[in-house]
Amino acid sequence: MNIKKGKLIMINQVAIIILMLISMLVTLLMVVMYLNNIGLREEVDSLNDELVYKEKMIQDRESRILELRKINHDNRKHINLLNSIDSKYVKRKNKISLIAESLEDLCKNNNIDYRYIISNENFIDIAYSDLNSILVNIVENAINSISSFGEYKNKHNYIRLNSYEDNIIFCIEIINNGPKIEDTRGIFVEGFSSSGESGRGFGLTIVKELVEKYNGNIFVNSNEINTTFTIIFLK
């Protein structure tokens, strides 16, 4: 009897040990599953962050495309005018004169006194559309800057476009009496807006790119009296 009783006790102890081992294995499996879930969550969070970043990049690119389309739309009538000019007329008149004339209505519609002086019209080896984009964007920037500041609406606002050349350079100057530009370098950075409006600030970036495309330089001098954009091309 004692032997049988001893065997039963041993069997019970073995069973208890087996149950404890099973319990430990279950606990270990639960810990492993928990750690795996944490890893998956971190991976999912990382993927979500990457997705949000890419969506923001896409939105920024779409905003830029819309802005560039607007600029192209605003300039289209000027480009169409230049492209439709009779070739004989182009030979008689310099392309910068044609663009200067086309800007008269734009300034007149914004109540701005606009005048231009084009002298020595012999050299300007730039495509019509590129030269048009350069001049129109600078003039439109001046108009937007003047229109965005109420104190200038009752002034005699003006824009002047002048060009001249010598044996070394061809120079274009665009002068306006709008508000002073504090950061004359930053205005060429993409997204910068002298008027403080969001969603603008691509026109002057395009201007700088086009000027440099023809190995030219553009400078800005601004004070309390007026702002002057000077574009210089070497011959």
From TrEMBL:
TM ranges: 12-35
Lineage: superkingdom: Bacteria
Occurrences of domain Histidine kinase (ranges): 131-235
PROSITE patterns, per database record: HIS_KIN
UniProt cross-references to Pfam families, sorted A to Z: HATPase_c (PF02518)
InterPro entries: HATPase_C_sf, HATPase_dom, His_kinase_dom
Name of the protein in question: GHKL domain-containing protein
Lineage per the UniProt record: Bacteria, Bacillati, Bacillota, Clostridia, Peptostreptococcales
